[in-house]
Specification:
Chains A, B, C, D: It is an enzyme of class 5 (isomerase). Chains A, B, C, D: It catalyses: alpha-D-xylose = alpha-D-xylulofuranose. The structure is a homotetramer of 438-residue chains. Chain A is α/β, with parallel strands linked by helices. Chain A is 46% helix and 11% strand. Chain A has 2 domains: 365 residues, TIM Barrel (Alpha-Beta Barrel); 40 residues, no CATH class. The first copy, chain A, has 16 helices and 12 strands. In chain A, strands 3-4-5-6-8-10-11-12 form an 8-stranded parallel barrel, surrounded by 4 helices. A two-stranded antiparallel ribbon of chain A has the order 1-2. Chains B and C meet through loops of B and loops of C.
């Protein structure tokens, strides 16, 4: 291709399950119809800009390993254009339908916010043209309110209202760009919206600031006619010691407190779920139960590491359970599956970047197929329905309707000296059943 | 004393900070006035029945080590009466103002719920008399909805509505007893209100069941004129893999979803905070910020153990931070400091049981004194106020009032090319300041 | 069958991968030859006595849920015989080649150790007969030195030498029984060999006690001519706060310190690896690297629970990585795959007990098949060999032989201004490669 | 001072416990005699170069916040000299006796290793002069074998022997510099000596490489006559997924395997202990028990964060337990207390850097004083001695000497139907006792 970065790498296409080499999709077959919908439309896979094109391979103990040419010294806008070229080459090489980005991923920061915005908008012009040419779409955009030192004590939750204002101005531009590019969603991840120590923090005040900020975003969305979904991405900590958007349940309470539960949904990340002490499927199931499921940042956290490892998801049984929850909830609407995944810092070749996406897309596709098979089989779902069948009886349905008091239930129990007997939860059977499909 | 269990142990009284032996209160001086209130009235210390008198010293890998005489074979009600005698002897030995219990702690389960209730009520008669004699009060009562096998798949969240009904009937009696004994609060801890596997669970349905159950409890409280506070005690897991009342933020969202946020507060446990990935002071501060702080289950979780270790709280600097949050929120109203703490299973002597309470009461008292000193000093609080001072300016206060839009803020930023500069958070200074007082 | 416990359950046999019901082995095909050996001989599956027949379904917050008839009141030896009958019925129902037990699992404790030993020996007589009849073999025996209160402060590491002596006497009998029954190994798990607090512990002394105890066991093994392997089972904690046999690396250092590294090997448990902060495959690989790999306690720890959950292993990709390490090390000799797995406490039916073993045996078989395929394919192993190929050059091989000094290497570097270039570690490629086989 | 960096900050000196401001030592009184030795000589406090002068305040999600002038663009050696000036100003401002550094902390990397070494040596010339002028001494030096991309797959454990050679050459120079500056120790921290995935790793081979490397270091030490101690610093993970020097027990096993247990000791870090699942005092006690205790990297890990937070140690009771173990083992010989602690990235002022060291030095001093008081009091130590007193009886001492067999002990037990009774471990008493002194 034109940039030469992927020289020697063939376009990645469906090769079927019998292929003996992992370069090629063995299961990700975009046109295959699953539960009445094309696989591509089910999964809505997106490549993220930050991990793939912006992260240089550094970690807290070591510098860059990747040394991409667009990260070298040079005119920053020139480099941003080269990066955009490489990005779209990769989208096409992998035949992926979507991408995602932060404003600062795509263009350099200028001397003022106006200059920074102009940089972002200039690259967005290029994106607009490339998207039209290639058919690649934007799953979501977002603003980076965490890297610059001005955000060190928060963006919306900063003790300094000037930084709140600055953040608002930056988000406005990111939302404008996202709308212009037809983004299906707009995401807020509050990496600095938390605290390092309670000793210098007024929790109540910061929550109110965050609530107000989010309300302003929602108001602006409606004013501009942006049709996408506003998404919050929960994470318990890192970089801050404690982040306000800890997990799905915390975000739900926050939305309820500020009357935003019908306006905002969640973008759930596997790695963030793990760091918060939950399984990924828990967070998905809970978001569905609470009516705020939106989208997925797909990756895998190393179970032995206490930080966000953002590895490519590769464990098919785990992915099957995740898509089972997603499909049970009706699947994605505006959301999708964003590869919030990065190659390891020792994986320094362009081929590694491609292979990570292939391997994970395939594992995801297998997860989806297994989940669909579990739904079609029906035994899992049927077991659950049977388990709660007693609640359909009129006298029990009345309890949930609020027609029965504590005393009335007590009377019912004592009238017959009721002694209910436990029934097996059959977990091992259900786990064995799942293994029929993965 | 009459039971002989504490033979050889002297009544524990204030001996002053210079005492050279840890048997005696060096800092817990109940009549000492701190910030205008007696220390006893600040702390409202309570001894719990379950750890002190019911737990036999067993763990998942080993049987009983304590071999208390009231746990030996014999007539269960006779043993329950002996246990009550020992309990009140201990309350007086330690000169503690409150106690707490589960229904099943104080009396044996009968063949039917009616019989079980009768057993509970019979012991409550004894309590009533002993409380009048000794002046010891009830901080709170609760129902054990987790030990019996009927609750293995939940109480209020059980798939079987009969178990929901049974639970309601049991709670009704526990609430009646708590009211009769003048309990200052009634607590619900949902040890089985969660799931072991999502594969057999309907999350939405179980949350609705739990919401309905709690509403029934609140309705019954008002109907009976019980003046105490209804408290939920968050815990993330153990014994279940995932408990619905995960942490303070989760409980808040749950209360909001069912319209109970003005009716129910939280009873926060140090160990549960740790298991949920939070510091104790975080949970306290958050509950205050959300307006749902109620009471405290005081203990300490071993930082290297992944289960609920319920050790006696002994680390003064940590306790100082906890009471600093409690005092900043106005202190306890109906709530108090319940020793949800157990001696180690190798601490098999009666003296160990007493020493655990002495040592922890003293550490708690030191924590309170340090917290009060921090408040009186004022530098910590003043630092925080100064940090957010910018929000008092009219143009910034207007933001939080909702009078300013995203676009208006963007205009403000661009008008002056605003570039706000970060200010030091001074964490090390604040931590050093705290160390002046502990 | 005679006891009636498994009434209604059919013998479990190989039914092939296309079976639509999880009752039956779809992949565990004992006679299938894998890498030149029968699958049964590769895996050497064993059913454990404690989880399957002794655990009543209790946990720290709740009582028994299983209510097996052999756990009911009655003559303890009568019940032990019934339990033995049920156990052998299950071994045959599942067609498993091995079993494992603690002395206290099989027979009740008596008034003296002599009586306890007599009880054990009486049941061993029964075992002997049943083993001859059924062909079921003993993978290993062990002594329970943790449940009785006398061991609360340790067995071999107890501050009281009388408890050390008692433990020695009990182990002697357990070794005798194991030898008599043709056990392939003898295991020591030191659940109480650790400390609850350093404040009352002399670490050095306790390590010496443990070293001496283990030496006595080895000496006795040789004296009696027992041909099995002595195995230590590492675990970091639980029930104790800190256990001396923390993990494989710790055990290795301990064995080296007491000169036992050629006499004792490790029995590695998945759940214990996880609790110690390692992956299962790490512990297996390390044991092979250190030359002390012995056997496996197979289960799965819930990744979100901080205690030993001992679930049935069901995740095939994880099992594939485990058996890949085992096969690379040459596979089992005297060791095997012991199901140290328990059904959930809500799985109260006999069918659950069977289904757990079926589902896990099948997942294990799939893991073995995938591992074998990875080895036969050769690309994974070849990649690793190539990666270290530079060390075969004579000048580099000389380094490891000890023939080159720090200064000589420095000279070599400076002579050519050596600047070695990093090469990709290709993790994503390797993970994708693994996914070809699982 | 000359550089102006600390303008406005007064020299920090002992002001006594009644001081009301945290700027000044309230407890760190260097000349105070504790257990017969000056406090300065007990603690041997050292300021580290990397956190204080090299870390720019970045984290994985955000850039530099500190913007120190010596980190700005400019001639790197000029900046290195400015940094050295600031460093020694700080050593004197704080009146600290020692410092520590990595080679790359003090001087920039050149185009070749020879050039890099020359840079290091040039700064060492400056150090030599400044040390003579100020009396500040070097606690230890070390080589940075982790930041440059060449080390991404390890230094001594790299699959590429050229990187092993390069590392050897770099370490040689770092050892030479350390010797020249009179360093009391030389440290090796293997941040990249581990693996990211087992799939590309030959564990056995890498351990052998590491063993050989360490042996070369020891040989070179003896050849050059360096009198300092060679120290390994254990850490379980981060940046690598799994580091070979996991914890003290693992390092001990490694040293035994390569015959280095009498040549190399450990430098124990609080944060690394926590990440490995241990308490700090455990690692200290174990190192003493195994005879390999060397030195301490003092800091504090946030208990809720799963990465290395390197905060300033401020919790006095925890520090008291740490120094209690250190003093029981005889205290430091060549080792000392290195502040491996960094101010938070929001603490951007020079005053924060000073305050962090003051606050922590004071907390450490209080920890030492408490530990000394515990030792002088004698009750803690006496309790432990009494607990094991039974082992002094001749028949029990004989067991540890190896004069008694398993059978002989069994005979002893059966002869008297021995039934040893458990004794209380009295943990709550001991914890209360500790609280008399902190």
């Amino acid at each position: 291709m034109a940039t030469g970065f992927f020289d020697g790498l063939e376009p990645v296409r469906f090769v079927g399950p019998d292929a003996k080499d992992p370069y090629g999709y063995r299961f990700y077959d975009k046109d295959r119809v699953v539960l009445g919908k094309r696989m591509e439309d089910h999964l809505r896979l997106a490549i993220c800009y930050w991990h793939s094109f912006c992260w240089p391979g550094g970690d807290p103990f070591g510098g860059d390993t990747f040394q991409r040419k667009w990260m070298a010294a040079g005119d920053p806008m020139e480099q941003a254009r080269l990066k955009a070229d490489v990005a779209f080459e990769m989208f096409q090489l992998l035949d992926m339908p979507f991408f995602t980005f932060h404003d600062r991923d795509i263009a350099p920061e200028g001397a003022t916010l106006a200059e920074s915005n102009a940089n972002v908008n200039a690259i967005a012009d290029i994106f607009e043209k490339k998207m039209a040419e290639t058919g690649v779409k934007l799953l979501w955009g977002t603003a980076n309110l965490f890297s610059n030192r001005r955000f060190m004590s928060g963006a919306a939750t900063n003790p300094d209202p000037e930084i709140f204002a600055y953040s608002a101005a930056q988000v406005k531009n990111a939302m404008d760009v996202t709308k212009r590019l037809g983004g299906a969603n707009y995401v807020l991840w509050g990496g600095r919206e938390g605290y390092e120590t309670l000793l210098n923090t007024d929790l109540k005040r910061e929550l109110d600031q965050l609530g107000r900020f989010l309300s302003m975003v929602v108001e602006y969305k409606h004013k501009t006619g942006f049709k996408g979904t506003i998404l919050i991405e929960p994470k318990p900590q890192e970089p801050t010691k404690h982040q306000y958007d800890y997990d799905v349940a915390t975000v739900f309470g926050f939305l309820k407190a500020y009357g935003l539960e019908n306006e905002v949904k969640v973008n759930i990340e596997q790695g963030h779920a793990i760091l918060a002490g939950h399984s990924f499927e828990h967070e998905l199931a809970l978001a569905n139960a609470l009516g705020i499921f939106g989208s997925v940042d797909m990756n895998r956290n190393d179970y032995q590491s206490g930080w966000d490892t953002d590895q490519f998801a590769m464990n098919v049984p785990e992915l099957a359970l995740a898509y089972y929850e997603i499909l049970k909830g009706g699947g994605f609407t505006t959301g999708g599956t964003n590869f919030d995944s990065k190659i390891r810092r020792q994986s320094i070749d362009a081929a590694d970047l491609i292979q990570g996406h292939i391997g994970s897309a395939d594992a995801i596709a297998r997860g989806l197929l297994a989940a669909a098979a579990m739904i079609e089989d029906g035994r899992l779902g049927g077991f659950v329905e049977d388990r709660y069948a007693g609640w359909s009886k009129p006298e029990n349905a009345a309890i949930l309707k609020g027609d029965v008091s504590l005393e009335a239930l007590a009377d019912r129990v004592h009238a017959t000296d009721l002694e209910p007997q436990p029934k097996s939860g059959r977990q091992e059977y259900l786990e064995s059943l799942v293994n029929l499909f993965v």
